[in-house]
Amino acid sequence: MRINGVWHRSLRVDEQDGWSVRILDQTRLPWEVVWLRLTDENEVAHAIRTMQTRGAPLIGATAAYGVALAMRREPAALEAVCAMLAETRPTAINLRWAIERMLAALRNLPPADRAAAAYAEAAAIADDDAATCEAIGRNGLPLLQEIAARKPGERVNVLTHCNAGWLATVDWGTALAPIYMAHDAGIPVHVWVDETRPRNQGAALTAFELGAHGVPHTVVADNAGGHLMQHGQVDIVIVGTDRVTRTGDVANKIGTYLKALAARDNGVPFWVALPHSTLDLRVADGVREIPIEERSQAEVTDLTGRTADGRIETIRVAAAGSPAANPAFDVTPARLVTGLITERGRIPATEAAIAAMYPEKA
User: Which residues are catalytic?
Assistant: First the structure.
């Protein structure tokens, strides 16, 4: 997507040396645009754990390049490197999917051939993600076109939670891809951006990239969504996801479940955008079976922001001595999901529909 009018991917091989990897340091956004250079698998693992790079599809592609970086130095360490990278984040299935794809491509090769093959496979994963997200945008666009046709001359109000744009993928994004295409097609789309506590991915990242692309948007407190829906100010909810079960249950950033409940109560369509790499057909019951990452208490008790004089500071906002719990995701049952926007089309969030759309996975 665009930064200062220039099109970027969120992950790329460094143009100068041809082997290291560049990512946007998302912990520095929206205050600074900093491209990090990653040179080995340990730096990749650190970037994923600390959320310098984040978003389910993007961490899968980044981990794939982590394998490639490792193969330059220690091609015999394939299994150990893949196991280490697979443990960096537990909830997003794209990470395990990418690692398993790298293992399948490299395991039976002679060690001397693994580095070149690893870079080729990582590039293929990244290109696939970009093409997949563009297709998700095309398949989601008609939903916004239909709303616009029903209310000519009025804006189309979309509510989204967390960040599921190009910063969470290699390019385009999942939930934001239809929004970008609608905006570029001249549809008067407006996005309600949930701040998405505790890390504020909405306020910091979604707002940043929508602003960079020129899409009208408004940041709202996480608990404002239900109120907006009650007053007819939300036409559709579109979110991304970190894992979708074979029965259509959806794991996404904490707070998504509450948006789905409010949408159901107010008759607002609740759509989930996902690439094929986010499907986990080994899991049936999302609430019981999907592991939910518990992150640091400090993400809840502390806030980071820019002071009036331009300094980036972290302050504590919780009472001294108070512990905090920080489940990073929740699961929205399939019964609350209007439908899934995939690169192959739009389908109901049902086991039969998913199996029919992805027979090779079933």
Answer: 242
